Predict the structure.
Amino acid sequence: MSDHIKIQPATGTWVVRAAGAVLGESNDALKLVEGDKPFVIYFPRTDISMAFFDKSETTTTCPHKGKATYYDLVAKSGTYKDTAWSYDDPKDDVAQIKGYLAFFVDNVAVEQL
């Protein structure tokens, strides 16, 4: 893996909450640090209540990670566009994040318990 991105287990239990609901909790989350950006916690999709999410039409491409697919959070209070993203087929250097979901923290709370 390049020096630009570092991935390691996110120690402890991590939870993601929004709109008054716990969307997921995991002891198997990953901590990804990219350059000088703040770290991002990636949750295994199997630990997230995917019933709250609809795949959006948004995609982006990162030169280091590959093509990202985005998800809208659908809650009783409304739909929050592009709240989460995932790499379905990440580049080899970051293959560990395949099957994981990360969140923009302006719409959700990501916390270590």
Remarks:
- The CA atoms of residues 72 and 81 lie 5 Å apart.
- The beta strands are 5-9, 14-18, 21-26, 30-34, 40-44, 53-62, 66-75, 78-86, 100-103, 109-112.
- Residues 5-112 form a domain with the Metal Binding Protein, Guanine Nucleotide Exchange Factor; Chain A fold (CATH 2.170.150.40).
